What does this fold into?
Amino acid sequence: MHAGDLRFQVQNLTRVEGEGSLHLLVRDGMVAEARLQIFEAPRYFEALVAGRTPDEVLDIVSRICGICPVAYQMSAVHAFEDLFEVKVEPSTRALRRLLYCAEWIESHALHIYLLHAPDFLGYPSAVELARDHRQLVADGLRLKQIGNRLLGLLGGRAIHPVSVRVGGWSRAPRRAQLLAMRPALEEGLRLARATVDVALGLTPPVFEREPRLVALHNPTEYPMNEGRIVSNDGLALAPQAWGEAFHEVQVPWSNALQARGSDNLPYLLGPAARIELDHEQLHPIARAALDASGALESIRLNPYRSIVARAIELVHATAEAIDIMDAYIPPEQAAVAWEPRPGIAAWATEAPRGLLFHRYEVGEDGKVAAATIVPPTSQNQAAIEADIAAFAPRVLDLPMDAATHTLEQLIRSYDPCISCATHFLDLSVRREATS
Amino acid sequence: MQLPPVPTAQVSKRATTLNRPRVGVVKFASCDGCQLTILDLEDELLALTERFEFVEFAEATSRRSSGPFDVLFVEGSISSPEQAVEIARLRAATKTLVTIGACATAGGIQALRTASEHEAFRAAVYPAPAFVESLAVASPISSYVTVDAELRGCPIDAHQLVELLTAVTTGRRPQLPDQAVCLECKRRGLECVVVTRGEPCLGPVTQTGCGAICPGIGRGCYGCFGPREGANVDGLASWFVDGPALGGLKREDVGRLFAGFTGAAQPFRAVTDRLGGRPQIPLRPATAHGPEHSEHTPPVWGTRPEDPDARR
It folds into this structure.
């Protein structure tokens, strides 16, 4: 520690899922350290799934995250079905996309209205925001509720749903049950389109950088369950092959492993990456909203614009949910029969926060022998640190409170899910002068 | 189980915006799902914030408070040395401490590991376990401090949460069911998954609160709300193993069924200890690299994507 070092510190980041902090060291006016510290206590999920059957794993991994349990169930169920060569019925596939749409709606509405919008409008929480803008918060809560009700219909309950099984469902819904929710989804689509206007009206801090973006890509649909892993610098990989281009590293300041590219450089996942790499596959209504917004480029360049990306995805998820309901014919059997086989089960799907990779070694007894689970927030940690380091010099002249607030807002732009990543945030900034 | 009466002294009969009960929501090792249940009360949330002052709820507000709290909702299990210190501090600052969810009330699935398995678990996830601070065992809150009321479930049930808050406001005992899931199933007129599908189900020995979700969707209960007091857990386990109803279940299959999200709670834990099915030590150590401790210089974005050399 040098005399004159400046240390900024955000202890206990708020309005994020889980516990973490940010430490920044500024020496001679340059950012010398930016450390996203995740102190969420580890729960050792990769060890807890050892010795379990594939269906048990679906119930266990959902507990990694209360906000995106479906994502964990989806990456796992696809991994097992890929290894076991299970061919699910087309309507099962459609229902899984519908379940994912429901989770995206719930998760994005939560983040936009309850966690992120208060930053732009200068409130400490949605509760204070609601005192001045009650209808705005009420609309956000309604949108979130629509997502949660759809989750409850398909999964028995919104948090840790119970219906996803290898081969299909424990019970598939009847057509009339889905159609009964159609008016709510129509309302959701209206609210989602209004959300895009709200998000566009929120002025982001001035900041641009050119990130490496990674997402699934599927030529025929906006990526959720199936696609190749692609990047804006030319990567194209099968969903099982995440490990060929990326690896995890442990850093001493974090309980979450960080993921890096094979060149050890950071990359960014999530709504901004998906919009950049997959906007041609958006639902026509969402695509029209994106085109009308003119925000495609700023979503890529300015991390604070992720709120617009999430709003566009809300439009997509509600519109696609309606389409799926309209076309739905229940599967002939809720679940098709399957037999386990030994080998490596690996898959990636698009969680609300970005690409979620699972890899399981299945033994001769049909049970999991070892597991690697790489959540999107683990993968985004290095990107967040890189963005903090790049952005921090702009705020160093601000009063400490204002600087800290702007940096904390930047971290919230990634919707970090710290509970997921610990296998997580406070902000501290130190300024040092070497002279 | 019987819940202790909730103290009434802190609640004014005329709760106004000036004189609302101070409520805190905190978490330890957990998935955030139970506190998310509070935010999922979409219809009641804004009204609730008028009745109660949420002075500490890091997931929802940047305003922070270290107490005092009239009511503190605690999610998660105690899994690190810092958490053990923090829960004692919170208890001292709190009138009514309510644990929410399977992690806080029963330790959660992470409580299945034993002290002797701790190092193997750490090594299965982290290349350098020494950098990760965690206690040998993950424990429910009641292992450390006195708990005044609990909401069970994985996750908790939103209606039970509203009932508890209402009870606190009016100073009465919360009306929470203590029957088995099995009874709820009968009340809903659901067909029994054990009888009709031959699926093992923990409904007869698990406390209800979920509304019998799993049987309602065609699968067996897996015990989210934990063992019901006085239930014949051993009898059910033995019947699954030896009885005529379910063919082909091995002892450890039954043991694993009890080793779920409340599997660390007795008597579920004793069943798993007796029949087998405890977590296995993973085959091989962590695959991640590291740790990187060379320097703390922040990562930087690579060359611009337009640059063909930027490909991996």
Remarks:
- The radius of gyration of chain A is 21 Å.
- Residues 269 and 414 of chain A are 9 Å apart (CA to CA).
- The longest strand of chain A covers residues 30-38.
